[in-house]
């Protein structure tokens, strides 16, 4: 069981006492997201009701689900304790968030608590890791969690949503209303279809391709893994243009493209730039680039992270859309998807009486851990920040 140490001086005197967890019961914290434009929430009221009915205690910060259209009343009716300060929401054994916490939010957490959230490698700094280690937080990056067959359920779900949404975004910026090229995404009789280049052949690419083909667009898919190209053709159920990534072939496709989707997932924690600035400069003016992998550093050299408030910028006459949390555009759908994944994980965790036992018993859960009891355990983060790290399995072996 994770050892929990009472914080000193965290609460004002009038704050309520800490919630004590019973045997086989966890105290789950669901704080409100404060990151700009993040509208998702990890648990829906229906999921909270299931957890409470199974003996768990859930603390929900007021308005945590508001932007996903879930009210405090719904959470209260489901059996959650609704609190009105972030400090109270963070006073839990296990904290579930979408965005990584800020330094201030980390200060609210109990020493020795467990954090399950996104890591978002592309925008992290060494100070973040130091703050977690100072509080001896066990941190789990949910994008690195695997299922029993080696898939990544959170990445898969969010990729399905991003892929389904990304072509609708492209359609917006192709229209004359947004000073685009004035093209319909797809095609009509007698008019050539729009050209869509998809870089990557994973889940984002699959759902992007389905949407593009459904609208009547012509697509070209590039990836360096032949098995992925073969797989996407099989899943789409039709012959589509596929190619491995080489500068000449990709460069020619980009020159004719109306829409370019960057959907290459970072491998071994490291992103790979496959579209150079020179290639972007050779594209048709008014074309659109959407780099879905920007949260991992991106795969297009000219891509820079943007936000929902100001989602685009123009470089070399090409519109760039580089928002890292595209699923937040459809926050309710994304929240239900996250809830479906994490509810059974919490129930498993409760059966084992804590997050630490989950790490010890399940390798698929262990793969998400990047800090553990004051130590950095992720080799890629250690290299990125020039910090020492320890192998998690060795730390567990020493403890057990």
TrEMBL record:
Q: What SUPFAM superfamilies does this protein's entry cite?
A: Formate/glycerate dehydrogenase catalytic domain-like (SSF52283), NAD(P)-binding Rossmann-fold domains (SSF51735)
Name the keywords, alphabetized.
Oxidoreductase
The record's CDD domains line, in alphabetical order, gives: L-AlaDH
Q: Tell me the superkingdom of the source.
A: Bacteria
Q: Please give one Pfam family short name.
A: AlaDh_PNT_C
| Ranges of residues in domain Alanine dehydrogenase/pyridine nucleotide transhydrogenase N-terminal | 29-162
Enzyme class of the recorded protein, top EC level: oxidoreductase
Q: What is its EC number?
A: 1.4.1.1
Q: Where is the Alanine dehydrogenase/pyridine nucleotide transhydrogenase NAD(H)-binding domain?
A: 174-322
Entry similarity comment: Belongs to the AlaDH/PNT family.
- What's the name of the protein? alanine dehydrogenase
Name the lineage: Bacteria, Pseudomonadati, Bacteroidota, Cytophagia, Cytophagales
């Amino acid at each position: 069981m994770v050892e929990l140490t009472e914080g000193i001086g965290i609460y004002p005197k009038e704050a309520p006492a800490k919630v004590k967890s019973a045997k086989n019961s966890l105290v789950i914290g669901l704080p409100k997201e404060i990151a700009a434009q993040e509208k998702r929430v990890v648990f829906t009221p229906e999921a909270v009701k299931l957890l409470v009915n199974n003996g768990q205690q859930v603390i929900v910060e007021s308005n945590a689900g508001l932007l996903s259209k879930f009210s405090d009343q719904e959470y209260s009716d489901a059996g959650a304790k609704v609190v009105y300060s972030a400090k109270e929401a963070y006073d839990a054994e296990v904290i579930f968030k979408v965005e990584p916490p800020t330094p201030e939010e980390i200060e609210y957490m109990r020493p020795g608590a467990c954090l399950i959230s996104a890591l978002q490698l592309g925008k992290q700094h060494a100070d973040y890791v130091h703050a977690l280690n100072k509080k001896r937080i066990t941190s789990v990056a949910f994008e690195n969690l695997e299922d029993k067959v080696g898939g990544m359920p959170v990445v898969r779900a969010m990729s399905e949503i991003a892929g389904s949404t990304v072509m609708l975004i492209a359609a917006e910026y192709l229209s004359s209303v947004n000073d685009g090229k004035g093209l319909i995404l797809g095609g009509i009789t007698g008019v050539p279809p729009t050209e869509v280049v998809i870089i990557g052949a994973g889940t984002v690419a699959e759902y992007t391709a389905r949407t593009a083909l459904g609208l009547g667009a012509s697509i070209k898919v590039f990836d360096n893994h032949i098995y992925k190209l073969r797989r996407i053709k099989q899943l789409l159920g039709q012959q589509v243009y596929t190619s491995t990534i080489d500068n000449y072939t990709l460069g020619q496709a980009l020159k004719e493209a109306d829409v370019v989707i960057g959907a290459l997932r970072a491998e071994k924690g490291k992103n790979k730039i496959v579209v150079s600035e020179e290639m972007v400069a050779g594209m048709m003016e008014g074309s659109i680039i959407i780099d879905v992998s920007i949260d991992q550093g991106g795969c297009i050299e000219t891509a820079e992270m943007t936000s929902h408030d100001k989602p685009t910028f123009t470089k070399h006459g090409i519109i760039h859309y580089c928002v890292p949390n595209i699923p937040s555009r459809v926050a309710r759908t994304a929240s239900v998807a996250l809830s479906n994944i994490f509810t059974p994980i919490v129930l498993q965790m409760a059966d084992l009486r804590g997050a630490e036992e989950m790490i010890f018993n399940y390798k698929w859960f262990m793969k998400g851990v990047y800090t553990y009891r004051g130590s950095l355990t992720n080799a890629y983060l250690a290299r990125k920040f020039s910090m020492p790290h320890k192998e998690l399995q060795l730390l567990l072996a020493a403890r057990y």
